[in-house]
Amino acid sequence: MGEIPACQKLLAESGELNHVDDLWIYFYDKVAQIVNKQGMQLYGWEEAGMRRTRRDGQDIMIVNPVFGNRNFQLDVWNNVMGGGMEDLSYRLANGGYKVVLSGVANYYFDMAYLRDYDEPGFYWGGYVDVDKPFYFIPWTCIRTPKKTMRAIRFLPLLS
After folding, report:
1. pTM over 0.90
2. What is d(CA 42, CA 132) in angstroms, rounded to the nearest whole number?
3. Residue 92 DSSP label
4. Mean pLDDT calculated for residue range 88-115
5. What is the Cα–Cα distance from 20 to 24, expressed in whole angstroms?
6. How many other CB atoms sit within 10 Å of the CB of residue 12?
7. Is-contact 77 91, C-beta < 8 A?
8. DSSP readout, 106-150?
9. Which residues does residue 76 pair with via DSSP β-bridges, in sequence order?
10. Mean pLDDT of 67-91
11. In whole angstroms, what is the distance from residue 148 CA to residue 159 CA?
């Protein structure tokens, strides 16, 4: 995107945009203004409330504080244990976003039921059987999983 002439022109002419990653925030800000003028709120996947930043030489996604209190509602799908985003729904909610818990590890019914070569379905977010949606614990979702994404059983949690 950074090599697109219109993006380069916008970056050069704007006093607020310093990097191509700032175009993400610019775009969502413009969309939010249009939506809010119509009396509606912005609703999207969790990425709409995130921003790319560099930390310790690595590009990472963090909660974007710019939109937290601007009536954004987000579907937070990324709750895969071991991926570093297990607490993302909490971080977004604490950042002021309205959050809908739609975790892939519990609610994506297109995931395979179990780990088997012949089992239909996807496996990128783990395995979802008929019980998983019912043992999801919203207020303590870190305690919810019984297995990792690769179907390795967790040890029982001590109370």
Report:
1. no
2. 29
3. H
4. 88
5. 8
6. 8
7. no
8. HH-TTB-SSS-TT--SB-TT----SSGGGG--GGGGGG--SB-TT
9. 101
10. 85
11. 20
- By the 8 A CB rule, do 105 and 122 touch? no
Pick the closest to residue 85 from 105, 111, 55 (CA basis): 105
Lowest mean pLDDT among 20-24, 65-69, 105-109: 105-109
Q: What is the DSSP letter of 4?
A: S
Locate 119 and state its tokens.
């089992």
Bigger pLDDT: 17 or 138? 17
Give 5's Cβ-side CA count (13 Å radius).
0
What is the Cα–Cα distance from 106 to 63, expressed in whole angstroms?
22
By mean pLDDT, which of 10-19, 60-69, 106-115 is the weakest? 106-115
* Contact yes or no for 81/148 (Cβ under 8 A): yes
> Each residue of 26-39: pLDDT tens digit?
999 999 999 999 99
Q: Report the SS3 class of residue 12.
A: helix
Which token pair is 77?
């799908």
User: Would you mind telling me the total number of residues written for the chain in this entry?
Assistant: 159
Residue given tokens 């022109």 in the structure block: 9
Mean pLDDT computed over every residue of the chain: 83
Quote the pLDDT of residue 159. 45
